[in-house]
Amino acid sequence: FSPSVLGTREHWDAAYERELQTFEDIGDAGEIWFGEESMVRIIRWLEKQKIPLDSSVLDIGTGNGVLLIELAKSGYTDLTGIDYSPSAIQLSEKVREKEGMSHIKFKVEDFLAPSAELSGFEICIDKGTFDAISLNPDNAVGKRKQYARSLSSVLKPEGFFLITSCNWTKEELLNEFGEGFEILEELPTPKFCFGGRIGNSVTALVFQRK
């Protein structure tokens, strides 16, 4: 991919500062990455697999925290969201307060350099964070490899990793996470037709840590 400001912390700090101001002004939590159906898809998979409601869940790059709010509404109790943007965490805390979901934990954390306490999760979820890291102008390849190492350190063996991406195909993601993870399932995403060929604009996969 071409490097992009979407891969920089400065971009996301500025974006979430704007969203924070908007939330304070009118109570709008801001954009849901990949739309509401992406959250429904994740929650349906967890329910279908009968994942226990007390399983520890980490939302990588939580943004406004809305995915964790929806998981809490579905009964999940051990929820943590991290983001390297302090403005994003401020926003997610305000959304949490408004929704009365005080048990959700939010922390400022850089997933590429996770703190020691970030470990032992049974589920890790990524909606767009790996995409953003892939666009970093400064050594994106190295950062992608570090992401996979961080994932191995925070996710328990046999834990699940659910990733939603608009930049990567299934085959490419299999290549990125081939070491230490096995694919369990590709989740259905909206299809489009162009020039007689059918494709997906979004890829959603479930991996399990070996």
Automatic annotation (TrEMBL):
For this UniProt entry, what's an example GO CC term? cytoplasm
For this UniProt record, the keywords arranged alphabetically read as follows: Cytoplasm, Methyltransferase, Nucleus, S-adenosyl-L-methionine, Transferase
Question: Where do transmembrane segments lie in this chain?
Answer: none
The Gene Ontology terms for molecular function here are: protein-lysine N-methyltransferase activity
In the UniProt record, the gene name given for this protein reads Eef1akmt2
Any idea what this protein is called?
A: EFMT2 methyltransferase
- Ranges for domain Methyltransferase come to 55-183
Task: State the Pfam families in the record.
Answer: Methyltransf_31 (PF13847)
* Catalysed reaction equations from the record: L-lysyl-[protein] + 3 S-adenosyl-L-methionine = N(6),N(6),N(6)-trimethyl-L-lysyl-[protein] + 3 S-adenosyl-L-homocysteine + 3 H(+)
Q: Which GO terms describe its biological process?
A: methylation
InterPro entries in the cross-refs: Efm4/METTL10, Methyltranfer_dom, SAM-dependent_MTases_sf
